[in-house]
Amino acid sequence: MAEREHEHEHEHEHEHEDDLEHHHAREHEHRDEHDAEAAEHAAEREVRRRFALAQVRQYGDPVLRMRANEVETFDDELQRVAERMVALMHDAEGIGLAATQVGILRRVFVFNHDGEDCVIVNPAITRLGEETEIDEEGCLSLGPVRVPVERSVEVTVEAQDVAGEKLTLELTGLPARVAQHEIDHLEGTLSIDRTDPESRREALAALRPRVVLSG
Known about the structure:
CATH topology: Peptide Deformylase
Order of helices and strands: HHEEEEEEEHH
Largest sheet: 5 strands, antiparallel
Low-confidence stretches: 1-7
Structural class: alpha+beta
Shape: globular
CATH architecture: Alpha-Beta Complex
């Protein structure tokens, strides 16, 4: 091989190495930008979550033990209440929210069912399936506390939508559990009331310091 050809080959190799280095540098730069954006979005979500949770009544608040009243007027105000509840549910990263949890004594709850936000007004459980299942339940009003609760796997709920039209919901699995949980809220009942005695004691032990601090 001639010397000039050898030098030219070395120059070509160096150019190729430089291209690779620039390519890797660009990849790292894009990855860093993506990581920075992801971290920023996560921080924004956390801020929204904390702000939303600050608007959700927490254990110890008397309104959580009160029975909600039937909704008789289907107007713009009810629509605004429903929209606010849906927004809070999403910002708090929950899958259901009852009106009593935001200090409103009306028989309304919202939940996400099959990717769709549903507003349920004046709900009444008209059928509980015989099959039951025990699973852990969390609650936006109970902080990090989770307790095992036995619920019917299938449930039928008769209700109205935000415009007052009649609804019949045939729910199975998680949606059935969420509906039973939220309707309990409208009766002033919490998941810790439906768990076993030991889990209830543990939950109350975790919740009491929060009640004292909030008081």
